[in-house]
Design a protein that fits this description.
Organism: Woronichinia naegeliana WA131
Keywords: Photosynthesis, Photosystem II
Oligomer: single chain
InterPro entries: Psb28_c1_sf (IPR038676), PSII_Psb28_class-1 (IPR005610)
Strand content: 35-45%
Shape: globular
Family: Belongs to the Psb28 family.
Protein name: Photosystem II reaction center Psb28 protein
Length: 79
Amino acid sequence: MPDILPTIEFFAGLSEELSNVSLRRGKESGDRQVVLTFQKLKAIEKFQSFTKQFNGNLRLKDSEGEITINPFSVKFFLW
């Protein structure tokens, strides 16, 4: 299978290019966190997030296949 860039969809049909992934665990709580980093987030640009239907889950795709997850929470940090 040819290598493809990892992508993620927050909204149906709006594929995002993933720049980095960090896995973390809270020191006190032990909760696991996944931090996804994007250079550019199409879902926020030009308010596209309001014109596309939210999946209710995150769809992740790479050269090894595709998975769909239901996140406990999603937070966006812009800088």
